[in-house]
């Protein structure tokens, strides 16, 4: 029996876990690869080493921050140095860098060993940086990003729009792997119990579980449900990010904050929901062009979703007919919730359209085949 091929993944967060990284690493483990994820634990509060679903996790410093950009930039070179030091002690047939802030050490180590390097673009990095940096610094990051995407042997990205952008910069061998989930699976008794827990008065449940950051309509939703909006529904918010405390402070009769949710528990929450929301501000490039996992989670469970107009996600929802689109920053999101809950025919049509799209294209087994096919091709080229 041939020895397993070894994959080193680099990640600049502590893998709490990161949903996309978890799915991709799990697919590779299932495909017969040995996978280790080297993670930056900026807060120094997670276990140094553990194994999650067959994926080896190793975390290290330096201590840094997600909110303090200057501190992040000062400590990033130290993270790169420590990552190179860790990689030097490990077997590797592939190095897989998640996002731009891990690509430099991945390229250097892969070139040294003469093995393939894969760049996984979760987002257009300089667009993400524009939410925290001034225009001059964003321009520098963009120039760096456009130069660096040409270096890997292959690039993985989240949708066709990103693929076009990255290829226009000269990236090679670009494969789209969307963050589609598997079919949600949770016992009916567990889902029913969760429904009662989340909404004891049996109000219908609107759910957002994901990254809690600005420009996602989250505080506006929390304010609305803390007040008089959507009186027949209850909002459940979960996840982690800089808005955790702000959202938690608003919890009340019709708003529940549940904190981080383990991936294994997410299907039950999705099935317990009546509606999912993922309304991101299209003024930001990544929000316009990216695709939140919430879209696919809603499809997989046959739940209508509400998203923002002027985004790739909005165009997809309108094309498939699996939810409603609204103008960002308006009360239209509350009107859309009320409309879906009041119009049973519309609700069922959106639910059925989402399930049909999920079964046809937007499911994880399809994406898993793409990822494993990419690795197989790189193995042939390498050998």
How would you characterize this protein structure?
The chain is an alpha/beta fold and 383 residues long. It has helices spanning 19-30, 69-87, 103-113, 125-129, 135-148, 160-168, 188-198, 218-226, 244-249, 266-272, 285-289, 293-301, 312-320, 332-342, 344-360, 364-382; strands at 6-11, 34-40, 49-52, 55-60, 94-98, 117-121, 154-157, 174-176, 204-211, 233-240, 255-259, 275-278, 305-308, 323-326. Helix 7 crosses helix 10 (266-272). The longest helix is centred in the first third of the chain and has 19 residues, at 69-87. The radius of gyration is 21 Å and the shape is globular.
Calculate the mean pLDDT score and round it.
94
The spatial strand order of the largest sheet comes to 3-4-2-1-5-6-7-8
Approximately what portion of the residues adopt beta-strand conformation?
15-25%
What is the radius of gyration?
A: 21 Å
| Continuous helix count | 16
Low-confidence stretches: none
Count of separate structural domains:
2
* CATH A-level architecture of the largest domain: 3-Layer(aba) Sandwich
Head-to-tail CA distance between termini = 17 Å
Order of helices and strands: EHEEEHEHEHHEHEHEHEHEHEHHEHEHHH
The biggest beta sheet, please?
8 strands, mixed
**What's the helical proportion of residues?**
40-55%
Relevant CATH superfamily of the largest domain? Glycogen Phosphorylase B
Number of E-state strands: 14
- Overall outline: globular
The CATH topology annotation of the largest domain reads as Rossmann fold
**Class from helix and strand fractions:** alpha/beta
Q: What's the CATH class label of the largest domain?
A: Alpha Beta
């Amino acid at each position: 029996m041939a020895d397993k091929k070894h994959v080193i993944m680099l990640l600049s967060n502590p893998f709490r876990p990161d949903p996309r990284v978890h799915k991709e690493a799990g697919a590779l483990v299932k495909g017969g690869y040995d996978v280790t994820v080297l993670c930056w634990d900026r807060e120094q509060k997670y276990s140094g080493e553990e194994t999650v679903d067959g994926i080896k996790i190793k975390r290290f410093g330096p201590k840094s921050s997600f909110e303090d950009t200057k501190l992040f930039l000062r400590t990033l070179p130290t993270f790169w140095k420590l990552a190179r030091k860790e990689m030097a002690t490990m077997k590797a047939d592939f190095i897989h860098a998640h996002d731009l802030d891990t690509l430099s050490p991945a390229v250097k180590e892969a070139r040294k060993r003469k093995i393939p390097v894969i760049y996984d673009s979760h987002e257009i990095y300089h667009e993400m940086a524009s939410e925290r940096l001034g225009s001059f610094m964003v321009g520098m990051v963009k120039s760096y990003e456009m130069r660096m995407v040409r270096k890997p042997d292959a690039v993985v990205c989240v949708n066709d729009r990103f693929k076009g952008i990255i290829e226009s910069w000269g990236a090679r061998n670009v494969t789209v792997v969307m963050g589609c989930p598997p079919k949600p699976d949770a016992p009916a008794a567990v889902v029913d119990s969760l429904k009662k827990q989340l909404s004891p008065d049996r109000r219908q449940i609107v759910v957002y579980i994901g990254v809690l950051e600005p420009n996602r309509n989250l505080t506006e939703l929390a304010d609305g449900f803390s007040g008089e909006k959507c009186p027949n529904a209850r909002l459940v918010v979960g996840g982690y990010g800089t808005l955790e405390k702000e959202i938690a402070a608003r919890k009340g009769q019709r708003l529940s904050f549940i904190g981080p949710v383990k991936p294994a528990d997410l299907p039950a929450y999705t099935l317990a929901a009546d509606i999912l929301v993922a309304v991101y501000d299209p003024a930001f490039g990544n929000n316009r062009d990216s695709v939140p996992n919430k879209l696919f989670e809603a499809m997989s469970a046959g739940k209508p979703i509400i998203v923002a107009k002027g985004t790739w996600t909005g165009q997809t929802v309108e094309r498939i007919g699996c939810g409603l689109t609204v103008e960002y920053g308006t009360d239209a999101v509350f009107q859309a919730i009320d409309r879906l809950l009041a119009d049973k025919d519309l609700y069922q049509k959106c639910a059925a359209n989402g399930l049909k799209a999920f079964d046809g294209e937007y499911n994880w087994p399809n994406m898993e085949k793409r990822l494993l096919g990419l690795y197989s091709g790189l193995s042939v080229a390498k050998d």
